[in-house]
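Dock 1,6-di-O-phosphono-beta-D-glucopyranose; give full complex structure.
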Amino acid sequence: MIKACLFDLDGVIVDTAKYHYIAWRELAKEMGFDFTENDNERLKGVSRMASLDILLEIGGIELNQEEKEKLATRKNEHYLSFILKMEPDEILPGARAFLETCRENGIATALGSASKNAMTILNRLELTHLFDAIVDGNKTAKAKPDPEVFLKGAEELGVEASQCVVFEDAEAGVEAALAAGMKCVGIGSPDILSKADIVISGLDQMDIQKLTNLI
Ligand code: B16
Ligand code: MG
């Protein structure tokens, strides 16, 4: 029996990657190098400071901790200027409907995201009330592929890992779900997410039957 669904945020509920990209690219430009959309793929599901390390590696730039923190803060301010303008119509197709379906079927829901801005985003999208537990980058010490974020989510819901299904768009997130002993539905490309139990293009392709068939 599946008792809980755990959702990643960026790439599953909403496409915030495009705003991360604009903000990181701006920083790269200021430092004198380009940051392509292809480079941005490497930042999906990765924490803010780890993302900055990847950006600096691409630019061949070395900075001390204090300088890095200043840059990360500046990037986040820029990113927030987009997030704070988001509207509920930016929710990815099927995401709200599937969260509601979980509710109607007595399946608990949790967010499991690396983002420290997750609460701000869920509030903007008017989705906060559809989650029974929210585990974000402020509550976790270990980044995906470590299973911490999903194990904490299951713990907050009081559900066994074996009765949880995770929805993830990043390879590291799929690995985190499997390491937690949970089933995983990949959202995106079957080539990249080949370790997931099934891969779909979006939550609009999900229903209770497919969920039940996972166990
Ligand atoms: P923040 P997810 C992740 O969200 C993003 O995919 C990743 O690109 C970002 O660096 C990370 O959140 C941290 O975000 O700067 O807002 O704390 O996919 O785990 O929901
Ligand atoms: Mg993601």
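Observed: The mean pLDDT is 97.
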